[in-house]
Amino acid sequence: TNPVFTGLETTIFETMSRLAREHGAINLGQGFPDVDGPEDVRRVAAEALVDGPNQYPPMMGLPDLRQAVAEANRRFYGLDVDWASEVMVTSGATEALTDCILALVEPGDEVILIEPLYDSYLPIVRRTGGIPVRVRVTPPTWSLDLDALERAFTENTKVILLNNPMNPAGKVFTEAELARIAELCVEHDVYAICDEVYEHLLFDGSVHRPLMSFPGMRERTVRVGSAGKTFSLTGWKIGYVTGAPKLLDPIAKAHQYVTFTTPPNLQKAVAHGLRKDDAYFNSLSAELQAKRDLLAKGLSRLGFGVLPCEGTYFLTCDITPLGLEGRDVDICKRMVTEAGVVAIPVSAFYIADAPTNYIRFCFCKRDEILTEALDRLGTWL
Ligand code: PMP
Ligand code: GLN
Q: Helix, strand, coil shares of the chain as percentages rounded to 5?
């Protein structure tokens, strides 16, 4: 017997973060802020850790956090959600997405994935026996090819997986794109798994519209959020799923066997965080937007072809104008050893036939780190 699993390879984030450590490079690869999120949120977690209880919380999550998630759905999107039957807490959005795929995809089901796609989707879809069907958003504008989207829907389509705002593209799907996705889901009786972990990281006045809020989608969509992104606490791994009971029930069954539950003190702290005032949520985006601008300006000055970024904490660049030899993967490796800066090759986010001239930089770092990275790149180029 062969103990080597096919399709489960080392992720690009692990590879590049390891390289960053080995070479003492500035890590603008893996997406994590270098300053921890709000102190009041961390303090609630610390106090709850000391005071307890620290035993298994309820499988579906602490009622306090489930209520806070339902409140946030109403506050930000006007969605009417019953916390008791429509919200579940998970150990990170990664677990939530895995639970959703395990619950909704059966062998032979077609699953529409939009490239460039976040790295955890494909291995799990394949492990469930689902058949990936690819659609793309295309640089430099990252617009969705609506004709290709329409062709992707067949009588075997079970699920579309939508990441909005989108990693690594930094794209926020337009109202028209979302409306068309919704129409096609309704027409073909397809479920949507919506990875909306970057819902609060939006720039230049962009607005997040959950696919769930489009006509006909309330009952066929599950929406996934992450405290890691919303509170700049990526190590906490607290996610939440919102969806109609018919969908959430099987997803909760999967959650029972994946992690069963999630640390109680962190859940309590995230409940507190989701009730923070608008000033918090606005400043989160405003601070990130300034960092995006700092990095985008610097990279443009160095000759990178900087692509638009409307949300997330990722900036993608075309490296063709630099005139360097090699593909994105080679250039990223050289950048680590020669410049001391880590970026992620965007080809890692494709299933096949990837473009090889784009790289992704993460900008949720202190300004002096971004400036130092730009200086290093300037010296290198
Ligand atoms: N989806 C996307 C698009 C992401 O970028 C991330 C970042 N890690 C996740 C899901 C996972 O979130 P979490 O850390 O809460 O598992
Ligand atoms: N979401 C992060 C990114 O895209 C990485 C998370 C991880 O390392 N799995 O960089």
A: 45, 15, 35
Confidence check on the interface: ipTM exceeds 0.95, yes or no: yes
Place of tokens 């080995």: 22
- Please report the pLDDT score of residue 5 as a whole number: 56
Q: How far, in Å, are 33, 135, 229 from residue 301 at the CA level?
A: 24, 33, 29
| Pocket-testing residue among 21, 32, 313, ligand 2, by greatest number of atoms within 8 A of Cβ | 32
Cis peptide before 139 (omega within 30 of 0): no
Closest residue to atom 12 of ligand 1, CA basis? 93
- CATH 3.40.640.10 location in the chain: 39-276
CA dist., res. 337 & res. 343, Å (int): 12
CATH 3.90.1150.10 fits 12-30+279-380, yes or no: yes
Amino acid at 278: D
284-330 pLDDT, tens digit each: 999 999 999 999 999 999 999 999 999 999 999 999 999 999 999 99
pTM greater than 0.95 (yes/no): yes
Q: How far is the CA of 53 from the centre of ligand 1 (A)?
A: 28
Architecture of domain 39-276: 3-Layer(aba) Sandwich (3.40)
